[in-house]
Design brief:
42 strands; 838 residues; Phenylalanyl-tRNA Synthetase, Chain B, domain 3; OB fold (Dihydrolipoamide Acetyltransferase, E2P); 22 helices
Length: 838
């Protein structure tokens, strides 16, 4: 929220020497975060001038310029006649018109510094400025004529304060629970809380007028949806306005500083009142309204062309304003084009309503149409300010647009008063650790506008209508702490209770991450949203009885990434592509995070989402919780480029499947588990260079090299290797507690074992047989060679294993090691028909 200081000063007393820093400090003290400051982009000298004479001069380029003599007053003249010569390309002025002159040294928005310069054969000693050049609007068809603003100042008058260009604004961050601060009214009240300055509520300055006769029907189906979509709906008619009148400079300046561009006088008035009171309003051209208004939900298949010119297909949950001919506005979001106020409009209907926050928020997101109105409605608008805001808009339309207030209008008000809250006198002190007196608690609650009824040791507190966020006693305690000052809350470091700490899973996840980082890999975090095609390429099974269904977003941030990820690999590939595009070729990456999918036969729960603004009952909430997708934590790896850089006497070594399998083993060892591999298949990985990852006999992941076609499609080089495993499942299959490995002081006995097996025998399973057959004396075993060629029968292969034997209580003899090795040969022979290689 941007708050111009001159506007703020109308409703709260500011010091004579007020600064932007002072206002920010005061608002920070009551819980608002400082965002920015906004100063005028115009610096002087900027003065009022009068056209004395001008001479049109056609140019060779077909353009006609005017050589003008402009009176600027004795304090700004360049000659004895108080006149400056200025070249101007506009033609919308006449002799005697008063204009805004930017003299040399002035700076206009852009920044655009002004200096005397020679052009078209003359020295132009300044510039006559247009509305857009001054930052007051978008008009640039000619220079700004002060008579069009209803101004007739003396020549030489400083134009900066005249046009409101000397104002400045502070910007604060308004949290979703404090929507009342999206207004000058709300911010002025908060400044008063912080400083004690006198506050004047702009809503109190408007007296309600009895208006009737304008038909308003509310047909929202509230009994079905639980809560009505509208609680107040005020209309007021103003006749005989001149919609073509210019918006006064002071109003344009305030709107500009508040971040809203000037459009037309009637629209500017509704925006001005919205910023002032926090109540969004809309003005309709009465001549285009058929009959009265009806507030209802959209019918299936209905369309509405909104003020931005877009034809919008409406959802049955969208709340509408309609007349007898159909929709004329998306309630609380944006009006319709058919009833738009135009320069020829003479009679308008002003509407000020209070709409249900959830309904408006859903419509704005569904239609991808955020607006200043929806921002306020979805945070909660004070229902008691609807009538004062409508009256304020009527007042300004009468004063500025020359209209006449009519008694035609309507008042619909079914708003419910806030519920009272019980608050024990000592609750604030117990929660905040501060010794608040009873008087301090009561005064703080009265200051925020609450009604307080003291009782024996407690208060009955009724929150003000503009604070829908105050629902419990804890909310009231927060207000007491805020108003009395956060600086009174002591800083006490809590003592952690004994016997607690990280869970087993948390400790194991940290150990995995620490082990991988220590091994030289870099952890990355990718977005969880992916394109459907990427999900299909890397997700779990998508067809058959074990099919997993992706989670599709109803309102994705990016329509090209409309699904939640079912695999971490697409995110790693995007990260790799981004790094490769920046010249980082050697990558070793990993990511740990959740994936999302719906198991076979499960529902996402979308069938249970309640319509309208109704709060779900317990049964519906249980159905929604049951429909949450599976969210296991996965761990994924990617390697690309070289693992060993080229150097003198050493060729570069490219990353391959063996490297990423070592990464997998490093991770699995951190959770006290062992992983084995066997040949596998994957739709996006290279046949013959793909492995299944197995822990405790269960497949928990996959590793392999990207298919060349997949790598080329992603602008990645050949040889990118990836792996992914279900970390939650690995931790579940691992030993509950890591078993300590004793360190033996006795020497090892090493032997090699070469077995001839069928070519289709998985090497990993043969290794398991070797380990199991060797018994407890085997300390270490690893496959070191896979030979197929001369001396080996066709259809067979020779697998060589390096074995290491050791005993914990004695030095092994060669015979003992050989006997253990023979156990490996026997078991491998039983399982795979293995024989010793000659």
């Amino acid at each position: 929220m941007r708050v111009p200081l001159s506007w703020l000063g109308e409703y709260v007393d500011l010091p004579d020497d007020v600064t932007l820093e002072h206002v920010h400090e005061a608002l920070v003290a009551v819980g608002f975060e400082e965002e920015d400051v906004h100063l005028s982009e115009v610096t002087g000298p900027l003065v009022v001038g009068q056209v004395l004479e001008f001479t049109p001069e056609p140019q060779s380029n077909g353009k006609t310029i005017n050589w003008c003599r402009i009176a600027v007053g004795p304090d700004h003249a360049s000659d004895e006649a108080d006149v400056r010569g200025i070249v101007c390309g506009a033609h919308n002025f006449a002799v005697g018109d008063k204009v805004v002159v930017s003299l040399p040294g002035a700076v206009l928005p852009g920044p655009f510094p002004i200096a005397a310069r020679k052009t078209y054969g003359h020295v132009s000693d300044g510039m006559m400025a247009s509305t857009r050049e001054l930052g007051l609007g978008e008009e640039h068809d000619g220079i700004l004529l002060l008579k069009d603003l209803g101004l007739d100042p003396e020549v030489g008058t400083d134009a900066i304060p005249l046009l409101g260009l000397d104002d400045a604004a502070v910007e604060i961050n308004v949290t979703p629970d404090r929507g009342y601060a999206f207004s000058i009214r709300g911010v002025a009240r908060e400044y008063s809380h912080s400083t004690g300055a006198a506050y004047r509520d702009p809503a109190d300055a408007q007296s309600p007028v009895a208006r009737q006769g304008f038909r308003v029907d509310v047909a929202d189906g509230a009994p079905v949806r639980g809560r009505a979509g509208v609680s107040t709906f005020i209309t007021a008619v103003v006749r005989g306005i001149d919609a073509s009148r210019p918006t006064p400079p002071w109003m344009r300046s305030r709107l500009r500083l508040a971040g809203i561009r000037s459009i037309s006088l009637p629209v500017d008035i509704t925006n001005y009142v919205m910023l002032e009171t926090g109540q969004p309003l809309h003005a309709y051209d009465l001549a285009t309204v058929a009959g009265g208004f009806t507030v209802r939900r959209a019918n299936a298949g209905e369309h509405l062309t909104t003020l931005d010119g877009r034809d919008r297909a409406l959802d049955v949950e969208d709340l509408l304003i309609t007349d007898d001919d159909g929709p004329i506005g998306l309630a609380g979001v944006m009006g319709g084009e058919r009833t738009e106020v135009s320069p020829t409009t003479t009679d308008v209907v002003v509407e000020a309503a209070t709409f249900e926050p959830i309904s408006i928020a859903r419509t704005a997101r569904r239609q991808k149409l955020p607006s200043e109105a929806s921002r306020r409605f979805e945070r909660g608008v004070d229902p008691a300010v609807s009538r004062p805001a409508a009256e304020r808009a009527v007042q300004l339309l009468v004063e500025l647009a020359g209209g006449t207030a009519d008694t035609l209008g309507s008042v619909y008000d079914v708003s419910i008063a806030p519920s009272a809250i019980f608050l024990a006198e000592d609750r604030a002190g117990r929660m905040m650790g501060v010794d608040y007196t009873t008087a301090e608690v009561e005064e703080s609650l009265l200051a925020i506008g609450a009604a307080v009824e003291p009782a024996d040791g407690s208060f009955t507190v009724t929150p003000p209508t503009w604070r829908p966020d105050l629902l419990t006693s804890a909310d009231l305690v927060e207000e007491v702490a805020r108003i009395t000052g956060y600086d009174r809350i002591p800083s006490v470091l809590p003592v952690a209770p004994p016997g607690r700490g990280l869970t087993r899973e948390q400790s194991l996840r940290r150990a995995v991450s620490a082990g991988l980082a220590a091994s030289g890999l870099t952890e990355v975090f990718a977005y969880p949203f992916v394109a459907p095609a990427r999900n299909a390429a890397f997700s779990p099974v998508l067809d058959g009885p074990d099919a997993a269904t992706p989670v599709t977003l109803a309102n994705p941030l990016d329509t090209d990434a409309a699904e939640m990820r079912m695999s971490l690999i697409p995110g790693l590939l995007d990260t790799a592509r981004r790094n490769l595009s920046r010249g980082l070729l050697d990558l070793a990456l990993y990511e740990s995070g959740s994936v999302f999918y719906v198991k076979p036969g499960a529902s996402t729960g979308t069938d249970f989402i309640p319509v309208g603004a109704a709060r779900p009952d317990d049964e519906t909430l249980a159905a929604l919780n049951a429909g949450l997708p599976s969210q296991p934590r996965h761990l994924a790896f990617l390697r690309s480029g070289s693992t060993v850089e080229r150097q003198p006497g050493q060729a570069a070594q490219s990353a391959d499947l063996a490297d990423v399998l070592d990464d997998v083993r490093t991770a699995v060892r951190q959770v006290a588990a062992e992983v084995s591999v066997r040949q596998g298949r994957h739709v996006s990985l290279h046949p013959g260079r793909t492995a299944e990852l197995i822990v405790a006999g269960e497949v928990v992941g996959v590793a392999g090299e990207l298919l060349p076609a997949v790598a080329a499609d992603l602008d990645l080089p050949r040889g990118v290797v990836v792996a992914e495993l279900d970390l939650d499942r690995v931790m579940a299959l691992a030993r509950v507690e890591p078993a300590p490995v004793p360190i033996s002081a006795y020497p090892v006995a090493t032997q090699d074992l070469s077995l001839v097996v069928g070519a289709d025998a998985p090497a990993g399973e043969v290794l398991e047989a070797v380990v199991s057959g060797a018994g407890e004396l085997l300390e270490y075993a690893r496959l070191v060679d896979d030979y197929r060629g001369e001396g080996i029968d066709e259809g067979s292969k020779s697998l060589t294993f390096a074995l290491r034997f050791r005993a914990t209580d004695r030095t092994l003899t060669a015979a003992e090691a050989s006997e253990a090795k023979q156990g490996s040969v026997r078991l491998a022979g039983e399982r795979f028909g293995a024989t010793l290689r000659d």
